[in-house]
Amino acid sequence: MCTSCLGQLACCCGSAACSLCCSCCPKIKQSTGTRFMYALYFLLVTVICVVMMSPTVAEGMKEHIPFYKDLCEHMKAGVNCEKLVGYSAVYKVCFGMACFFFIFALFTVKVQDSTSCRAHVHNGFWFMKFAVLLACCSGAFFIPDQDTFLNVWRYVGATGGFLFLVIQLILLVEFAHKWNKNWSSGTKHNKLWYAALALVTLVLFSVAVGALILMGIFHTHAEGCTLNKIFLGVNSGLCLFVSILAITPCIQKHLPNSGLLQSGVISVYVMYLTYSALASKPAEQIKGPNGNNITICVPSFSSGLDDDNKLVSTLGTIILFGCVLYSCLTSTTRSSTAALRVCKTTVPDNEVARCCFCCGPEDDGDYEVDNKHGGQAVIYDEKEGTVYSYAFFHFVFFLGSLYVMMTVTNWFHFDDAKIEKLFHGSWSTYWIKMASCWACLLLYTWTLIAPIVCPKREFIN
Fold it and tell me: SS in 3 state form for 67-119?
């Protein structure tokens, strides 16, 4: 009875309603559509946080919205709505979003049947859940003792943001191994896959070396930038070390699929994190020949620096959204979940090599396709059970909420944080990103040596 009632109500404000959006859209799996809807919620709140951290947007609203001051006073948000902007507002909104996903993580623990009551709530009732999300974000503004709340929540956010970074790094290593394994399987039938592997590996290492050279040119100076020089040397040396380690006979004996492609992916990502860290480092100054201060350790472009910074911040914010959503959505697939548990992922003997291997269907089968309402066709791929962990899905979004909160507010440099200065100098951001480089290299190294250190256990390979 409960399942029947919930199913009928979910038709009005659940996945069935979503399928009515567009009949010209391609078929979509029910599990994918559900995750996409949660991602939209996440993206919406993240955009609101970015707007709250932007003085440019706040000034624009003040100029273009009629009766702005009267509206702010009516909402009791201050003279110029100062209570709705800044890092404290972002903390409160992200607190509401984090509570929303954490509650659903607890609510969906051990849900394995997609026809259960809790599964219907997870896969439907979108309007009601949006109202709950809105209530959580709004209710955070009425928390008493705001100073204590902000101080405590700051450290909770830092812990959750760090855990999310760890998950992101594990997924990257899993992605690299999966890529090499899929393309290597194609060499049994077509030798051209060897050429594809060699070409992509060459491109990856060329990008990594090119990035290293550019950082050496623009982020170092003969009379300063000592930290930059040290870490450029250390990170490039570690990339060379793991690349050589991956093709040693001892590693190849236990991990036949190990190769330079994975090392190339890791090297490019490490160079990206290194660049991001160097760009986040506060600029240094030295005395010039005429006694004037000269800024070093940053690219010295002669004109349009403010416009360039705005462009970099905009692109960086878009990249941030993409990375967070990719990590949240891919961390709940079966292979990625196995990787996060450090388990061995079984690969079928008849695996087909694909150029776009990551976008291929993870499971093939005969699923029920619903197109009765004339809208978008929905593939019900969870008739026999859930295809991903609902609880873990919400928990990753919970950590993603904390990561966005800390990133948008510039981690611990929140007092003068602005979204336009997201990629400007900050020591805390510098060390966090530099530590991420070493964590990524450490995780990849562990996947190489783990079968040797613990021969009785099975790991991803």
Answer: CHHHHHHHCCCCCCCHHHCCHHHHHHHHHHHHHHHHHHHHHCCCCCCCCCHHH
